[in-house]
Amino acid sequence: MRSRTFQEYVQGPIQLGMGLGIISLLARWVTGTTILSSPESMVKYGVFGGIGYAIMGAVALFMFSFIGKRVRQDFPAGLTMGDYLKTRLHPLGYWILLVILVITSLHILFIQGMAASTLCQFLFDTPLYVGLFFFFVFCILFAGFGGLKLIHGFAAFQVVFMFAAVILIPLYFFVKEGIQPVYDGIRLYHPYMLVINKYDLWSFIFAGLLVGFGQFFFDLTSWQRLFMIELKKVPLTFSLSGLIWLIFPLSFSSLFIMVIFTGGFTDIHSILEGLANKITTPFFFILFVLCAFSAITSTFGACLHALVSLIVANMIVPFQNQTNDQQKIRMAYLLSICIGALIFMATLFYSPNLLELLFYSGNIYSALLAPILVIVFSRGKVANFIPISAALAIAASYIIQPYASEFQSIWFSGIISFTIIVVCTIFSFIKNSWELRKV
Q1: Cα three-residue angle 37-150-19, rounded to 5 degrees
Q2: How confident is residue 62, by pLDDT bands cut at 50, 70 and 90?
Q3: Which domain holds residue 382?
Q4: Which among 359, 394, 419 is the end of a domain?
Q5: Are 239 and 62 in contact (CB under 8 A)?
Q6: Which of 140, 299, 312, 354 is most open to solvent, judged by the fewest CB atoms within 10 Å of its CB?
Q7: 29 contacts: CB under 8 Å, gap ≥ 6
Q8: Element (H or E) spanning 118, and its range?
Q9: 294 and 382 assigned to the same domain
Q10: Residues 322-354: pLDDT tens digits?
Q11: Are residues 333 and 380 in the same domain?
């Protein structure tokens, strides 16, 4: 059924309670990245890397509950994150953050496209563009055209598939193989994975916290859900979502441990092939495929819908006089097709490592962390130097990136934005004090 109004297209017909709010958040945050990058973290940084990946995301989502509570107290009603930013920023700062929001959202969609590409190569013996084409068409139809009502209609089934997979498949493996043989196999073939005192591991965790906080605090979909959840249930909904989300990366990491404990591997594709050989029961194999497909499509759909809603509501409609609801919805349909086509082409012609791709955007999220905290916890409109500090920090971090490690550039980005804010705040305070003395 078509949405009758643009608000219904963006927010759905009902306000979310705690149960549906948790389902909606899990459908957004259990992603293709969760399935593939958490095992890659484990492979690259050891077992504790996989555990660290899980903790980083859970803590970030838990901390967002405090952000959400403050936002809803100051701004009870809204459609998008852009609506809130408009009340807190001057025009220059507002448009700077809107542009960054669009860029980061496109990046998230591209990451999910890459996860879909990996899954298609694993499952289908056909040209890559065939599987990806059907994936993008499905996402555009159910999210871009269906609106939030259809997204939530799919979300419950998607979360059920994901929960079933993360509980039943590892349980099946550990009962079948036993825990001791798995531990002995890891010690024999991959002893480095049991080492905790590695410098890279701690660098990964601390940088990941910066990236995780920035990503969760600056996510369009999370903010959109924030305005849909009942005010008194906001803190508990986000906190419980973080606690439940912790299960998923830990389970996926344990699933891939079951594959590599019997020998070596080359990359994520070889691990997926080993997983296919390990899952000899058709039921569990189909369940894993449904879980992976649900995670990728739910995230892509939610992010596509949130991005389209932001562009229409905050970037197009303000310049269009007398635009009615049906015109706004048609704009959303057209934008969904254009964005889907753009990500489809980018996914076909560019194939980076998923974990590297995730942390390549870390400079942006790290730079945004201090500004978004200042915006949320300040009173009234904030000065333009707050969003400008993020833009300058992002530019500076990418300039030095060729001369620093990936984690160092992430730290540098966060430090630069924080330093600019502190210096400008002190300067502004001194200037105001001097002017008061002159009066």
Answers
A1: 70
A2: confident
A3: 361-439
A4: 359
A5: yes
A6: 354
A7: 57, 61, 241, 245, 299
A8: helix 91-123
A9: no
A10: 778 788 888 999 999 999 999 998 888 776 555
A11: no
Note whether 70 and 218 are same-domain residues: yes
Does residue 1 lie in a domain region? no
Residues 207 and 120 grouped into a single domain = yes
Residue type, 436: L
CATH number of the domain that 101 lies in?
Answer: 1.20.1730.10
* CA pseudo-torsion sign 67, 70, 71, 72: positive
Query: What's at 430, amino acid-wise?
Result: I
> CA 115 to CA 269: how far, in whole Å?
11
In a shared domain, residues 355 and 386 = no
Please tell me whether residues 433 and 345 are part of one structural domain: no
pTM, entire model: 0.86
Residues 314 and 380 both lie in one domain: no
Token reading at 322:
């007398």
- pLDDT tens-digit readout, 124-135: 777 777 888 888
Cβ within 8 Å of residue 20, ≥6 positions away: 152
Rounded CA Rg of the chain: 22
Q: Which helix (H) or strand (E) is 242 found in, with range?
A: helix 234-245
**Look-up: residue for tokens 């002190």?**
426
54 contacts 346 by C-beta, under 8 angstroms: no
User: Rounded distance, CA 50 to CA 286, Å?
Assistant: 25
429 and 339 fall within a common domain: no
CA distance linking residue 170 with residue 96, whole number of Å: 45
Kindly state the greatest CA–CA separation across the chain.
82
Q: Provide the b/e sequence for 113-145 (b: ≥16 CB within 10 Å).
A: bbbbbbbbbbeeeeeeeebbeebbeebbebbbb
From residue 109, give the alpha-carbon distance in Å to each of 3, 264, 308: 24, 32, 12
**Residue 301, phi then psi, degrees to nearest 5:** -65, -45
Question: What is the predicted pLDDT for the residue at 334?
Answer: 93
Token pair of 29 as six digits: 């945050």
- In 10 A of CB 200, how many CB atoms? 13
Cα 350 to Cα 14, 47, 106, 117, 357, distances in angstroms: 40, 29, 14, 11, 11
